Amino acid sequence: MYNTGMATVAYTEHTLSDFLRKSGDVLRDVDERAVLLRRRDGADLILLRADHESETRETIELSAQVLNWLSHSQPENFADALLEIFPWTTFLPEEDRSEFASDFIRTLRACVSIGTFDALQAEIAQWRNTAYVWSKPELLSALQGEVADDGLGKPVELPVRDQA
Fold first, then answer.
1. Any idea what DSSP says for residue 87?
2. Residue ranges of domains in the chain
3. What fold characterizes domain 2-48?
């Protein structure tokens, strides 16, 4: 079992050394399910068949389409679902919750289109940080207050290059 943070996924586990010494055994396991290769000096690796990866990507794409449809056809149900999945959205004002839902769908669809989800994780983290600020009245007040003019807000002139 491998905990991804959101879900626990079942893999057959091997060390990278096992793979390098007995690749045939590890590759037989790959036919059954994904194999998690544990490494001592780096991030773990996952080996899986290309057809399984393709099926996973198609499923993610279909799921994103369903979520997109739901967000437009039943926005209140979609908002409720996001509140259930991301309980910290409780701290966001209503208009920010709506904006989060739109940003989530837009970023999810963009990530699906390019096959990487770093931007979605960053989007979620930024909104979670925003919710944190809304949950702390003293921090919110400090961030919304007047900013003292300390002279640092003045533009900096670009240096002039000598033409010599």
1. G
2. 2-48, 52-140
3. YefM-like fold (3.40.1620)
